[in-house]
Amino acid sequence: MEFKHKPIMLYECINGLNIKPDxxxxxxTIGGAGxxxxxxxxxxxxxxxxxxxxxxxxxxxxxxxxxQFSNIKLIKGNHDDIQEIxxxxxxxxVDGILLDLGVSSYQLDERNRGFSYLGENELDMRMDQTQxxxxxxxxxxxxxxxxxxxxxxxxxxxxxxxxxxxLCKYRKQKEIKTTKQLVEIIESxxxxxxxxxxxxxxxxxxxxxxxxxxxxxxxxxxxKKCIECLKPQGxxxxxxxxxxxxxxxxxxxxxxxxxxxxxxxxxYCVCGAKSQGNIITKKPIVASNxxxxxxxxxxxxxxxxxxxx
Length: 309
Hints:
By secondary structure, the chain is of the alpha/beta class. It contains 13 helices and eight strands. Strands 1, 2, 3, 4, 5, 6, 7 and 8 form an eight-stranded mixed sheet that branches.
C-alpha cells in the first residue's frame, strides 16, 4: 500500500509557520510529507527542511516524494528528542517547527500494523517497528487497574473498568493476539444501547496506541524543548487530536509565554517572570466544515501556534 496521509489544515499550518525562503524548518512528524512538500516548495536553495519520523515506512515514502529537492535532511527519530537530533546535525536554532500528532492514514489503513479495529490482524500499534512494547504486550501483561486507567484517561471510555475486567478474564484462558479478539472483548463489555457513537472499539484502540507509543507523557517537555530550539520570531505549530494532547500543548505554551504572579499592588515585578514569546492563537484553529466533510479525521484536530521573541 502506498503511504498516503492527507495533511490536516494544510493552509493554516503553512501560513502559521510564516516561512522565510532561506530559513531552517523542522517537520517533527513528517509522515508521508503532506505538509512538508508545501514547506520545501517555499524554500530557496539556501533553505533547509529537516524531517523526523520514527516510522521507517514513512521515511521511505518521504524520500521518494521529495527526491526532486536537494535541501532536505531526513532523520529516523522521535520529536521528543528534537534538541539532541538538531545538535547531532550541527544545527543550533531553527525558524520553524511543525508537529502533527495524529496517526497517518496509512498507519490506520494498513491493517497489518494493528492500528485499525477493522479486520483481523496481529496486535501491534508500534509507530517505531524496532521498539519492544506492543499492543499485545499491553493487553496481556498490564494489571486490570492499569488497563482501566489507561483506557479511561487516554480513551475517555466510560466503560473502561468493564473492558479491563473482561480483558483480564479472557486472557486467563487464551492469549489476546489479534485485533479481532480485542474488538470482540470490547463489544461484549459495552451495552448494545450505548454502542451508537461510532465504533465501540475506537476509544480503547486509541488509548492502547497512545500507551504503546508514549504519546502523552513527554509532550509538555517536548513543546518546551521545541520553543528552546527556535530563533527569534521562529514559529511552532502543533496539531493535536485528543484533549489530553491539547491540554499539554496549551499549558506548555502558556508557561513559555510567562505571567507575572506578583500582587497587583507591588510597584514592580519581583517574581522574575520571563517570557519566551507569544501565543499567536488565542483560541486553537479548527478545520473548516468543508475540510471536515472531505476528511472526517480532521474533525477533532486543533492547531496552536507559538512565536519566539
